Amino acid sequence: MKRARSVYGVAEVRAIERAALAAAPAGTLMRRAGAAAAGLAMRLLPGGGRVLAIAGPGNNGGDAMEAATLLASQGWQVTIDFRGNPAALSADAADALRRAKASSARFDQADMAQGWDLALDGLFGIGLARPIAGDLAELVRTVNRLPCPVVALDVPSGLDADTGAIVGPDGVAVQATHTLTFIADKPGLHTADGCDHAGLVEVASLDIDTALFPAPSAWLAGTDLFAPSLQPRRQNSHKGSFGDVAILGGAQGMSGAAILAARTAALAGAGRVFAGFLAEPPAYDPPHPEIMCRRAADLELERACVVAGPGLGSSGQARSLLSQVLAGTAPLVLDADALNMVAAGVDLRNALGRRGGALLTPHPLEAARLLGCTAAQVQADRLAAARRLAADFGAVVVLKGAGSVIARPDGLAVINVTGSPALATAGTGDVLAGLCGALLAQRWPAWEAALAAVWLHGAAADMLVDQGVGPVGLVASELPGAVRTCLNQLIRAAADH
Q1: What is the mean pLDDT of the chain?
Q2: Which of 110, 155, 214, 272 is 20 to 30 Å from the Cα of 61, by its Cα?
């Protein structure tokens, strides 16, 4: 079982840091940060080597110089490229500069032709407020071309630690192979651009008293967050024990979406699955004839968990059926076209708000339509967008994308850590919606169902990639069987604990 890990925003980390600084001698945290960074470098290169330490104008630069001093003392060939004003440094950073100058480390502008074995990025930390530009932007681009490991200290320079967005519309950010983040993990390292820039993330707590940390409002996903629902099945059970799922979708030309959702619901353990089509339904699904294909209008929508949206379209009939679903009380997953109709219709929006308790699975553009903004604005702060949607509709929300964000109305958010670009293909959202429906039908609470569904969805893709299926060319219809395998593995692991 993988345990969840708390993440803290920049303001929270600053408050923890202030409290810790007040309780420790001057320079203590910076020296601990430098020691942690030097320790990681030594683990990456046990035999030593040539190190480039890029030190910026703030305390992040001080951390890099502390690390450089320690590595130089161990016989490493260290060059420090200092890009700050000595007169403007904090007392701790100024002390780090003095110690570095007294070491065997060499101060020089970075020569990228020298063949570095490792680079330390201490240019800018979590406080960066404007885009990196000019000579520093060119330095970042040059670092990104290095063939050696690049270790970012606290956060890759140029990346917003809260949101995972690159600072500024024309900004640049270091593409690290490793990030050693200090005090606590940061959400921006695990979503949006952070997924491509942070590399492998480690946390150095700097031995700060845990009593100084507030209760977290965000976490990195772990299977422990939904482990209580991973129960082995009782021998004395039948198909009715595991609920019905009704897929509401399949308009003309989009039947595949409903079929993908239905197949996933069946393979994820729903007792019975009904696929409701607005277009003429097929007689049956040949690979899975156990799925019952019906006209959407003939579905009994109060007796099943309803998954509305896969290939639903926006016709008058689709809108009427969605209105009927929103007026009911059955467990409900809204995806794709259902979300777009809610965004476009005040009456449907109000009905969803009154109903509450639904599980919404928007991608960024669908989220933007619901919020009345642009997809770029959603992507600029994915946690805030997911939290606002959850609060607006009294729903559990899965904001899909790199580092999918799961949020609930009280503001708690979880960033998923499974999955890869293999999922960036048509139909994978329909698979996720069907998986959510299957878990709800099996009486999982909506929050745990969302967390588990997103985890399993990504884990299934990861498993297939490990087997050589993808990431390029993986298709959505390959996922349901892998989801079944991953779900059973988790249930067995939970039973063993």
Answers
A1: 97
A2: 214
